[in-house]
Amino acid sequence: MPSVPSDEEFLTYNRGVIDEFRANHGVVTQPPFPVLLLTTTGARTGRRTTVPLGFAVDDDGRVYVVASKAGGPKHPAWFHNLRANESVTVELGAGSFEARAVVTTGEERDRLYRRVAGDDNAYAKNTDRVFPVIVLDGVPTPASGMHISQPQKTG
């Protein structure tokens, strides 16, 4: 099973990805899959915070992310933030979009999760929690090849 990075390791890694993303109009060398930047408003602090996330696109062209935190025992902070305030900013490629974060449930959540995780997701083996799947309503469908169509790793 993969190990779960510490919060400090996540922060250090994420800072590098964010800087590279913005310097190269949405193109990064690591991780080895396309990412978007999600900016949420802190539930307690009100401060805007940005994280890089892998993403997928469903059959209807909706962009979505999974709150896996590498299989950590708790949901990532960005997920708690968007539950308190569903208004988010998404940077995708060279564009920036205001969006509404919609937490999926039931069959829709399961279907979208299976689409990216498959039947044997290593992150899921690290924890008993169910990974939330969030549709980013208002983000246009990215260009072909700019999204993940196989199992992914998200923050």
Automatic annotation (TrEMBL):
<comment type="similarity">
    <text>Belongs to the F420H(2)-dependent quinone reductase family.</text>
</comment>
<dbReference type="InterPro" id="IPR004378">
    <property type="entry name" value="F420H2_quin_Rdtase"/>
</dbReference>
<dbReference type="InterPro" id="IPR012349">
    <property type="entry name" value="Split_barrel_FMN-bd"/>
</dbReference>
<dbReference type="Pfam" id="PF04075">
    <property type="entry name" value="F420H2_quin_red"/>
</dbReference>
<dbReference type="GO" id="GO:0005886">
    <property type="term" value="C:plasma membrane"/>
</dbReference>
<dbReference type="GO" id="GO:0016491">
    <property type="term" value="F:oxidoreductase activity"/>
</dbReference>
<dbReference type="GO" id="GO:0070967">
    <property type="term" value="F:coenzyme F420 binding"/>
</dbReference>
<protein>
    <submittedName>
        <fullName>Deazaflavin-dependent oxidoreductase (Nitroreductase family)</fullName>
    </submittedName>
</protein>
